[in-house]
C-alpha cells in the first residue's frame, strides 16, 4: 500500500514508474473510483490498471496522495485495508481532497497483489468518520 501511494504521487511533468505500478496488481485487477454525477446521483467507473495509467499519465497538474490512517483485516489468502488518504496538487500545497481507499489484496506464497481499489472522496459530499482519521487534516 505504501508503494501504491508512492508510485502515483509526483509533479505533473514528472513521469511515474508505471512498471512498478503494474507490478502491484493482480492480472484481473480493477480500480473503481466513485463520484457524484452532474445529476447529483452517485456513480462509479471501473478501470483496469492500464486504463488508469492512460488516464493519469498525461496529467499536467501535480498529484500527491498519502495515507492518514489504515484499518486492515486478514484471513488466509485475503486482506482488506480501509486506508484513509489526503491529496495535494503540489508537495507542500494545501490538502485538496481526502477520502477512503478500500483495497482488497490477494496473498500467494510470496507476496500480496492488489485485486481491487474502490474509493470515495470527501469531494463527493461525505466527511471522513473519526474512526478513520476524520479529525486528521494534514
> Which secondary-structure class do the elements indicate?
alpha+beta
The biggest sheet amounts to: 6 strands, mixed
Supply the number of helical segments. Answer: 3
Low-confidence stretches: none
Radius of gyration: 15 Å
Polypeptide structure, described:
This protein has a six-stranded mixed sheet with strand order 2-1-6-5-4-3. A hairpin with a 4-residue loop joins strand 5 and strand 6 (112-121). The longest helix is centred in the middle third of the chain and has 8 residues, at 49-56. The radius of gyration is 15 Å and the shape is globular. It is an alpha+beta fold and 138 residues long. The mean pLDDT is 94. Helices cover 15% and strands 43% of the residues. The two termini are 19 Å apart.
Descriptors:
6-stranded mixed β-sheet, globular
Short recap of the structure:
By secondary structure, the chain is α+β, with helices and mostly antiparallel strands. The protein has three helices and six strands; from the N terminus they run ααββαββββ. It is globular, with a radius of gyration of 15 Å.
